[in-house]
Specification:
This protein is α/β, with parallel strands linked by helices. It has 13 helices and 15 strands. A hairpin with a 3-residue loop joins strand 3 and strand 4. Helix 1 packs across helix 4 (about 75-90) and helix 3 packs antiparallel against helix 4.
Length: about 375
């Protein structure tokens, strides 16, 4: 009828509503960034990004995100979105510099992005030793290093670095690891050599035995380096994550070749400082015991008496002057400022063992 406007199609209405919500989101993000700058004003000018970074505060904020989440997006997706917002807000003055085992495309880089967001500046290095060195020298604000795989246990070189380094553990990251096979070749039967990091070769050994029997396995410093190498070799393949394949633009011959579907790697964030409690923390300790009967029992029993949960214990040679002397890496629940843990550590100290606090840090988020 004349004078009446036709009702808008349903799809148009939905899109207009989405556009209006996008405007609100953008306005609120800008407002958050403004208040983040206000934090810098309160703390004082002339400070670097590391002076504003507080992992315990970030962990608290992200846990509230998880608690509030009612879907339809998963907790993982909501945490990722808010992590990127916080990362960009923190980087307004200058981004954090994060050292990791490179080159670009490694699982270590994925752990950096999951924990610090894409606004942080990644510093790829050729070895785990270099990551510790760059953090110690101040050339990097933090470092991210692998420490444990769910299928094949501890990364020994990372544990050994704590024997000589003063680095503190400031956080942890858990990364679900899916392995891919990349090559210039178009068929598996053309492959004569497979390059990968030693851990990835172990994580895929059953698949390799069944699908590439007799193929030569070559260890290299990282999976991303393996992918970079095989770009120019017709009869070789590399094992790496999906990020490496995208960066180096190479054919995917097989996906998800890890032997266990629940394959995951735990990474540690290392820095030069200790941070306050976040409310859900883990504490890592390095303990050297005397060579006498019951020495380890004397170390562990105080945790039981003070109701402190023991998460992990790992022994390593102490690299001391005496042979067969060992140190123990121990993870327990709680923060070193918690009364129960303080009492347990005080009791352990009376046994005259050598005890070093590696760090108290927020438990990994989804």
């Amino acid at each position: 009828m004349p004078g009446t406007s036709a009702e808008k199609p349903p799809l148009t209405q939905v899109r207009e509503r989405i556009d209006a919500i996008d405007q609100q989101i953008q306005k609120l993000i800008s407002e958050r960034a403004t208040w983040a700058r206000e934090v810098a004003e309160v703390k004082g000018k002339g400070l670097s990004a590391i002076d504003y970074y507080r992992p315990e505060r970030e962990a608290h904020v992200l846990r509230m995100v998880v608690d509030r989440n009612k879907g339809p997006l998963s907790d993982v997706e909501m945490v990722r979105l808010f992590r990127e917002i916080m990362s960009s807000c923190l980087a307004q003055e200058a981004p954090l510099k994060i050292a990791y085992l490179g080159p670009a495309g490694t699982f270590s880089e994925q752990a950096v992005r999951k924990h610090f967001g894409h606004a942080a500046y990644g510093l790829p290095l050729s070895s785990i030793e270099e990551v510790f060195q760059e953090v110690a020298s101040g050339h990097a604000d933090f470092g991210v290093v692998p420490v444990e795989n769910s299928s094949h246990g501890m990364i020994q070189i990372t544990l050994d670095m704590f024997l000589t380094s003063d680095a503190h553990i400031c956080g942890e990251v858990e990364l679900h690891v899916h392995q891919y096979l990349y090559s210039r070749a178009s068929e598996l039967n053309a492959i004569r050599r497979v390059y990968a990091h030693a851990q990835s070769l172990q994580q895929c050994k059953t698949w390799l035995r069944i699908n590439l029997p007799g193929v030569e396995l070559k260890e290299v410093s990282s999976n991303a380096e393996a992918t970079r190498m095989v770009r120019g070799i017709n009869d070789a393949a590399a094992i790496a994550g999906d990020t490496a394949g995208k960066i180096y633009e190479i054919n995917t011959l097989a996906s998800n070749i890890e032997d266990r579907a629940d394959n995951a790697t735990r990474f540690l964030v290392i820095g030069r400082s200790l941070f306050p409690p976040s409310g859900n923390d883990r504490t890592s300790l390095l303990i050297t015991v005397n060579d006498k009967p019951g020495a380890l029992y004397d170390v562990l029993s105080p945790f039981v008496r003070h109701d402190v949960s023991l998460n992990r214990i790992e022994s390593r040679p102490a690299h001391a002057e005496r042979r067969w002397q060992y140190v123990f890496f121990i993870d327990v629940s709680g923060h070193v400022h918690d009364q129960a843990l303080q009492e347990a550590l005080s009791e352990i100290g009376k046994t005259r063992v050598k005890l070093r606090l590696l760090g108290s840090y927020p438990v990994a988020l989804p």
